[in-house]
Amino acid sequence: MKIHVKVNGKDYTREVAGNRTLLRFLREDLGLTGTKEGCGAGECGACTVILNGKTVNSCLVLAPEVDGGVIETVEGEAKNGKLSKLQEAFHRNHGVQCGFCTPGMLMSVKSLLKIHPKPTVAEIKEAIEGNFCRCTGYQQIIESVLDATGQLKPRKEEIRRVR
Ligand code: FES
Ligand code: FES
């Protein structure tokens, strides 16, 4: 079937098979390979994107289901070659190591910040609980989010308490 979607503000129309996942659609049909495939089974969060304002595991969503949808992926973060504030904070605080989890992590955090522009440590942890990271131990990721929201210094003590 033919579907129409808006991805990172750009319109696309493509023919897709009924069993095409949103993940494969983004990566293979649109060439947006920033979104990663880890488990392919809804467990790791590497494939997280924002669909109509909410995070989804794109490996579990079928492309025909998103017809008419608005999708945000990591490719929409940097503008004119300049990293977003959130990406810069991840870079500065070593929230990125191998980087495999990062695109999905950024989408989960972006979604959180729309609701809680100054999230607590507990809110950050809850927002990223479905995003597995095998490298950072999560502390640098939490610090990255606090830095991006201007709260790193005041909440250092809170980070220690919830570890
Ligand atoms: S690849 Fe989708 S949750 Fe792991
Ligand atoms: S930075 Fe390697 S999995 Fe998170």
Low-confidence stretches: none
What is the mean predicted local confidence, pLDDT?
95
Give the CATH class of the largest domain. Alpha Beta
CATH architecture of the largest domain: Roll
Largest sheet: 5 strands, mixed
Our count of domains comes out at 2
The hetero molecules present are: FE2/S2 (inorganic) cluster
In helices, the fraction of residues equals 25-40%
Please give the number of β-strands: 5
What is the succession of H and E elements?
EEHEEEHHHHH
Strand content: 5-15%
CATH topology call of the largest domain: Ubiquitin-like (UB roll)
Number of helices: 6
- Structural class estimated from helices and strands: alpha+beta
Identify the CATH homologous superfamily of the largest domain: Beta-grasp domain
Taking strands numbered 1, 2, ... along the chain, how are they ordered across the largest sheet? Answer: 2-1-5-3-4
Radius of gyration (Å): 16 Å
Report on the architecture of this protein.
With 163 residues, the protein is α+β, with helices and mostly antiparallel strands. The chain folds into two domains: 2-76, Ubiquitin-like (UB roll), CATH 3.10.20.30; 85-156, DNA polymerase, domain 1 (Orthogonal Bundle), CATH 1.10.150. Helices cover 33% and strands 14% of the residues. The chain has a five-stranded mixed beta sheet, with helices on one face. Strand 1 and strand 2 (10-15) form a beta hairpin. Helix 2 (85-92) packs across helix 5. The protein starts with a strand and ends with a helix. Bound molecules: FE2/S2 (inorganic) cluster (2 copies).
